[in-house]
Specification:
With about 80 residues, the protein is mainly alpha-helical. It is built from 4 helices and 2 strands, in the order ββαααα. A two-stranded antiparallel ribbon has the order 1-2.
Length: about 80
């Protein structure tokens, strides 16, 4: 309690992330279901962690780390 900075780690990082996530929910998606909430959060964790990468590098990283195919049928199940 009362500690906001510890070396290079500080609370501004998580506050910045939540700010971007909330802005996406209200600006991009307009509605998020509880069922798919973790998928939205996972997407923005990836975006936030690769925010300093180029679009090409981000896309290549995404393709190299795909573990399985999520079909529409499975998504709405």
């Amino acid at each position: 309690e009362g500690q906001y900075v510890n070396g290079r780690v500080h609370t501004n990082t998580i506050e910045g992330f939540w700010s971007l996530l909330k802005r996406a929910f209200f600006g991009i998606y307009h509605f998020t279901s509880k069922k798919h909430l973790q998928k939205y959060v996972d997407e923005f964790v990836f975006r936030y962690n690769t925010r300093n990468s180029s679009e090409q590098n981000r896309f290549n990283l995404l393709l190299t780390n795909i573990e399985y195919r999520l079909t529409y049928k499975k998504l709405i199940k």
